[in-house]
Queue: 2 jobs
Job 1
Amino acid sequence: ERQSQEEKRHRAVVDVDLETKLILNIQEKPQGECNSRFAMPVFYCFRKHTLPLFRDFILQHPTKSFGEFMSWLLKRQPIYGMKLPVAFSLIGADVHLADYAASIRCRELADKGVGYGKHTHRAYARVGILGNPSDGFFGKTIAMTIKNFWAQATIYPSERLQIVPHPLHDPTQFGSLGDLHRISQKEGYMGGLRLIQATCKKFFEECARRGIALPRQNFTLSYDTNIPRQVGLAGSSAIVTATTRCLMSFFQLGASEFPKEQLPNFVLSVEMEELFIQGGLQDRVVQVYEGLLSMDFDRGLLESRKYGTYVQMDMAHAPPLWLAYCPDPSDSGRIHSNVKERWRQGDPEVIAGMKSLAQLVDEGRLAIEAHDWALLAQLMDRNFSIRRQMFGDEALGTANLEMISIAQQHGSAAKFPGSGGAVIGLCPDPTTFPSLREALQDAGYVVMRVTPHAPESPIP
């Protein structure tokens, strides 16, 4: 990629098909208008059977340059390009010996891992406010990231590539068999290691697919998280998102290599294709963009350009929500499966239900912007009723229904923020929250006020 200050007349530029990585056109040091951002490389790689073509070209064009040979070759066979993740500056009339010496010093430091540095990124838990789970069915949703819970990944250069187990979520040593039983019962068997390893594998494949040549620099990756497990707060996708950000920072990749609107699709592909974790785009979109978002997953848009319409709302309009969750939940990812299959088979109840959920979003967005919490509470209750009708009480689970029931007894709206294990609510009368909190805690649930998380710095 050409540097912003570099004059295009200093070297040839190429037009590249960003999907196939096929080079479409080569312009030798253009003097006029040129829209391409990509410059010809300093070196070329030729297959053995291409070398005899040099002689043919020289015989036909004895006065032409090597750059013109590439244009000549392009008309005879396909040429593909691999994009280097950083600009190459040692070319042009203004480059001197000192520039080469400085570049060599930088390369030596990079070989030792000095230039890559240490990077830490966080991704936050999310709550689905309206419309979910229609995001997996070409619907609409409103969701928000929250400060209460987060996942964090850290990367730094090392001699060998290492993924560090988390002492709590990936234990390998126990005080006793009883400790093993207790920890396994509470934390399960699937910690964050599989998420990080799957992200690294998919990242390598995605860079190759996008024609990005990664430097051969190893690293160490570690993670931490305080997002409760399997309560539908997007804990898995938070780890994948934070890890992806670390890898992008480490290899100096930005929006030109991984456009922001495409990043949620990558995160979802890690979970679904590598780990078979079911879900829709909502969680990944809101964790990439952060803040309060209105999302439209229109089928036509997703099938044509692979992403929907994502609108960040003013955080000043964030509703005053509360959150409750089960301290010992079951696997939240399994609750989607039956409904998804019914939807694929054209079940009219599921199709109508998902359409009704999506329709709540437009009205809900106006209610949020107007701070009409009474109307928003009604819409949240309606969201839960539609979901309950589609899934049935057995699939929703006794504990989830008990949290909803306690909330309703105290005059609060309540619904699932995700796939199950937690409940968010809105009290039209804020004075009722203390008694509601006490009732939920007496029943054994963890309760707190939601702290909205505003967008931070952009994706690297």
Job 2
Amino acid sequence: MKQRIITGLIAGAFFISMMLALYTPIFPLFVCLLSGVAVFEINKVMGLKYKPLKFLSILTASLLPLAITYSQFNSFFPFLIIYTVLMLSWMLGDYEHTKFVTVASSVFVSIALPFALSTMVLFRDIYLRYPKHFSKHDGLFLLIMALFCAWMTDIFAYFVGVKFGKHKMSPNISPKKSIEGAVGGVIGAIILNLILCAVFKNCFPGKSTMMSYFVVAPLSAVLSLTSMLGDLSASVIKRNFGVKDYGNILPGHGGVMDRFDSVIFVMPVLYACVMLWV
């Protein structure tokens, strides 16, 4: 527990540093690093050992966030086709030990995961893409709100579950999670984001459709439930491959994927909701 707390404090300090560097080139590079490490961990869990395939998938995952953020989709779509063909072709170099399912999964993950994480940068720049609808502070607000739903839902659910949990939510996937904890997680996320909304309204007064209590409350509930779905989905993958954690880069917490599994689900769902709102 002590190690977990220390790692959490260090990670928290790093997170604050990234928020301070949000509008600098450092932040997109951080997302690229995050994406590359996450794909590295998933490749390891899946048992992908052929080095050319591992290298190409990690390289693609690391560079794709920049392409998604700073170019049009049709400009890098041909690259994705070439990448997929290369991955499936290079599989022949180690066909005796490399399974098609593993390679196909790696291709999917190394494309889908960067797309999901890239929404963090898209939120940052949303006021540039849609100046009539969003201010510069809206992007920061949406980003923090999504992260709160991803991380704080889990924290609230844990403590409420420990105190009041009696009914198992999904005993076959995650035996320790309870329905009471899930409800506590949703309520906690809603309350926290309403407080966040009040802080932003006070610090950055002005017209903003997204910083509305009537929008934030139901949206937080949806994102909180999405966070739980992401957490359970990541648990299913780990169970399928017989591992406890995706990695050990964060002592006491596991790997990057163990901390960002919910984020990978929440970010694109919020972005989709925002685009529908626009």
